[in-house]
Amino acid sequence: MAGQVRVEIYPRLRDHLAEIVAPEMRNRADRVAAVAKSDAPRDSGRWAESIHVEDHERPGAFRVGSDDRRSIHIEYGTEDTPEHATLRRALEAAREG
Predict the structure, then answer these.
(1) What's the rounded Cα separation, in Å, for the pair 23 and 15?
(2) Residue 21's pLDDT is what?
(3) Which residues contact 21 (CB under 8 A, 6 or more apart)?
(4) Global pTM?
(5) How far are the Cα atoms of 47, 66, 84, 92, 96 from residue 72, in angstroms, in the given order?
(6) Where is pLDDT greater, at 56 or 6?
(7) CA-to-CA distance for 91 and 76, rounded, in angstroms?
(8) Domain parsing of the chain, residue ranges
(9) Which secondary-structure segment (H or E) carries 90?
């Protein structure tokens, strides 16, 4: 019986908590995106312009990413090009500061 009560309450509690933390989580995601954009390589500017914040499937969660087709190569590097790690470094900077 107690398990059923938890199952019924948990989704409502999760959604309520998500409403409370969503604005702060969005602010953090925006800061990560801003740092990433300022640190992004500037060959054409497309990579920096493509960095954005989007909603995650989980309520109150967000993703910082890029829809530039070259993003994986810029972030992680290739055989010929070292990684730039734009998003990783931006996330680390946000955690530290």
Answers:
(1) 13
(2) 83
(3) 60
(4) 0.76
(5) 11, 9, 10, 18, 24
(6) 56
(7) 15
(8) 2-96
(9) helix 86-96
23 close to 41: Cβ distance less than 8 angstroms: no
- The full length of the chain comes to 97
Q: Tokens 């019986």: give the residue.
A: 1
Report residue 5 as tokens. 């009560």
Copy the structure tokens of residue 97: 């500061």
Question: What are the E-state strand segments in 1-97?
Answer: 51-55, 62-66
**Token duo for residue 52:** 């954005």
Decide: helix, strand or coil at residue 62.
strand
Distance CA 33, CA 36 (A): 5
Query: Which residue matches tokens 């055989």?
Result: 79
